[in-house]
Write a structure and sequence with these properties.
Oligomer: single chain
Helix content: over 70%
Order of helices and strands: HHH
Length: 84
């Protein structure tokens, strides 16, 4: 459920947020330039770096999403208790 929701949010960002799209495209191009400039013996290291970055981002996204959900539940609970 979390992965689907985050994918939808990214799709909406790509469709609606021009600055995000431009920064993302620029970042991809810069990374490709750096990767292509490296000697063959470092290509695998770059792959491992990119894989680690993606894994870290995935963990961070899930943590942020879950914390937001917990915050919403806590706020809902506090609102329910204040109406007593």
């Amino acid at each position: 459920m979390i992965r689907i929701r985050l994918d939808l949010l990214y799709t909406k960002l790509l469709e609606c947020h021009r600055e995000y799209t431009q920064l993302s495209a620029g970042r991809d191009e810069y990374f490709k330039t750096l990767r292509d400039a490296l000697p063959d013996q470092l290509q695998h290291t770059v792959f491992l770096y990119e894989d680690a970055q993606i894994s870290l981002q995935s963990i961070l996204e899930r943590s942020i999403y879950i914390q937001g959900f917990k915050d919403a539940l806590q706020l809902f609970s506090e609102l329910q208790n204040s109406n007593i």
